[in-house]
Amino acid sequence: MEIIAKNNIGYDFFRNLLIFFLNSFVARIPFHAARLFLYRRIIHVGTGSSILMNTTIRGYRITIGKGCVINSGAVLDGRGASLSLGDFVDVSPYARIWTLDHDPNSPDHAARARPVCIEDYVWLSSGSTVLPGVTLGEGCIVAAGAVVTRDVSPWTIVAGVPARPIGERQRNLVPRKPYRPWFE
User: Fold this and answer.
1) CA-CA distance, 66 to 87, in Å (whole number)?
2) Residue 41: exposed, middle, or buried by beta-carbon count in 10 A (0-12, 13-18, 19+)?
3) What phi, psi does 126 have (nearest 5°)?
4) 5: DSSP letter
5) Which of 28, 71, 89, 174 is least enclosed, having the fewest CB within 10 Å?
6) Are 166 and 159 in contact, with CB atoms under 8 Å apart?
7) Per-residue DSSP letter, 60
8) Domains (range + CATH), the chain
9) pLDDT tens, 38-64?
10) Is the separation of the CB atoms in 86 and 121 below 8 Å?
11) Is residue 180 within 8 Å of residue 52, measured between CB atoms?
């Protein structure tokens, strides 16, 4: 676990601040190709991936694999530690992925950063939340509104607060064609 000093103002702070202001502009561009071109200057975005309008990108430590779809209203937080999305990951509207939180045992609520790894073919449903330090195994599904506090095994369906296994997913998935919106 990485603890970030309370008064650590340096290069990362200013880079994250720049990305915050850039994202507030880029997220509102109505043309997907132009928006994706600019996002690729901030973070790593794989071929065939789509980031729809009004997505919030926080930080620059974000890697998105090929064929991913990041829907409107999603929050991707790469400020404190790395956030890695595999190939063909679907992030539904208003899903949130966090890499930075506060230490509840610290008297001054010190920030702590832990990486999040999301493997291939994962589906995060609407309103789901992934907390820092979590790994989502290949092909798992996080149900709508679930809060993932622990690692999820491959091909498992989880739901609830905190998220618990409720089923298994089929393993014979065929990769879908890339989503190519003009507007969105």
Assistant:
1) 5
2) exposed
3) -55, 135
4) P
5) 174
6) yes
7) S
8) 9-168 (2.160.10.10)
9) 888 888 999 989 999 999 998 889 999
10) yes
11) no
100 with 81: CB under 8 angstroms? yes
CA gap 39, 51 in Å, rounded: 9
Contact 183, 165 (CB under 8 A): no
Size of the chain in residues: 184
With a cut of 70, list the residues of the chain below it in pLDDT. Answer: 1-11, 173-184
C-alpha span between 22 and 173 (Å, rounded): 36
Element of type H or E holding 13 = helix 11-26
Q: Is the pTM of this model over 0.70?
A: yes
Query: Is residue 129 within 8 Å of residue 93, measured between CB atoms?
Result: no
Q: Write down the catalytic residue from 32, 44, 102, 109.
A: 102
Question: Is 102 annotated in the active site?
Answer: yes
